[in-house]
Every structure is written in structure tokens, then in C-alpha cells.
Amino acid sequence: MPHDDGYDDRPKRSWSEIDKMRDGKRSSSGSRPAEREKLDRSGGYSRYKSAADAFFSGNLLPDPLREKVDPTGEGKARQDALKKVKDAEDFKTFAALSKEYIDKYDLPEDPYLLDRLLGHPNDEIVLRTLARLTALLASAALKAPKSLPQRLKSLELGSDNAEVQDLAKSLALKLKNAPR
Questions:
Q1: How many CA atoms lie within 13 A of 141 on its CB side?
Q2: What is d(CA 87, CA 108) in angstroms, rounded to the nearest whole number?
Q3: Cα–Cα dist 24/16, whole Å
Q4: What is the C-alpha to C-alpha distance for residues 80 and 160, in angstroms, rounded to an integer?
Q5: Alpha-carbon span 75 to 53, nearest angstrom
Q6: pLDDT for 86-113, tens place per residue?
Q7: Mind spelling out the 3-state secondary structure of the chain?
Q8: Does the predicted model carry a pTM greater than 0.70?
Q9: From residue 66, how far is each of 52, 54, 70, 75, 162 by CA, in Å?
Q10: Model confidence over 41-90: pLDDT tens digits?
């Protein structure tokens, strides 16, 4: 006589129902987000992230690799000059360092630095900056800082140069109509 263990009395489930039950058990535990937050806050992880950021920005390359990537050292010099411009505390120093940088290397691609350059006292630099921002917006590569529309409005209303006013107005209109 066969042994009856009650197995036949249970309802038959499809594999998709079994998978849904398993997935529900995993997601309802709630331990994953807590574990992730704990990992994000750990000292080792933050050191790893900062080391990775330094490596991929080119600041922390081993010497043999640095020689292959940047044999002339111009990339390092450019990064150092850009860092000085970004770290300039007062506006007079910023204006002088940014003019040197632009004369030597051309305008940077950083939209926040370009936004800051719109306040430069040299109208030629402001015009070039407006042109660069317009090109970045046209190529959809511009992540516009929140302060950019206000800075464009102040250029439109406060600049003595008519060309600067027109370009600022045009860029502000394009920025307003750009898809988000």
C-alpha cells in the first residue's frame, strides 16, 4: 500500500506562481537597502570611491601609465591651471587666472565654470563663453546650472555691449525652449 503523506492534497502551482512567491520573500525582507546604506557610509567604500574618482580624472595615475597617457605633461599642466581657476577665491584673481587659461588652452567645457565666466569683465571672453554655451545647448551636452537663466538676464539688461545683450537674449530663449 502506498504511503500517503498529504502531498496530493496541496494545490498545484505553476512555476510563475512559485517564482512570484520567491520574489515576494526576497523583496519584503527590507534588508537590502539598509545593507547598501551601511556600505555607502563605510570608510573603506568612501576611500575606494575617492581613489576611483582620482584615477579616472587622471590625478592618480601610476608613473609608467602617466607617461603613456600624457607623454608631454601638457594634460597635467592644463588640469593644474583649471584647478587654480576653479579654486580662485576672489573675483579679481578669478578674472586674471581665467584669462590666462583661455589664452593658453581655450574655453573649458565645464558648464558651471562657463556660467561663472559670463561675469568676466572682458567682453570678448563673455562673447566666446556665450557662443560655447550655445554650441553645448545645440548638441544637447549642456547641463545648465540653475543660475544660468538669471545670469543671462542680467547680461541682457546690464551689459554695455549690444552683441553681448543679443547673444544673451538668444541663448536665454533657446534655454527656455530646450527640452528637459
A1: 9
A2: 15
A3: 12
A4: 34
A5: 17
A6: 999 899 999 999 999 999 999 988 889 9
A7: CCCCCCHHHCCCCCHHHHHHHHHHHHHHCCHHHHHHHHHHHCHHHHHHHHHHHHHHCCCCCCHHHHHHHCCCCHHHHHHHHHHHHHHCCCHHHHHHHHHHHHHHHCCCCCHHHHHHHCCCCCHHHHHHHHHHHHHHHHCCCCCCCCCHHHHHHHHHHHCCCHHHHHHHHHHHHHHHHCCC
A8: no
A9: 16, 13, 6, 10, 46
A10: 677 777 777 777 776 666 666 667 766 766 777 777 888 888 999 999 89
> Do 102 and 128 form a contact (C-beta atoms < 8 A)?
yes
Cell numbers placing 26: 526576497
Residue with grid cell 586674471, as numbered in its chain? 96
In Å, how far from its chain's centre is CA 22?
38
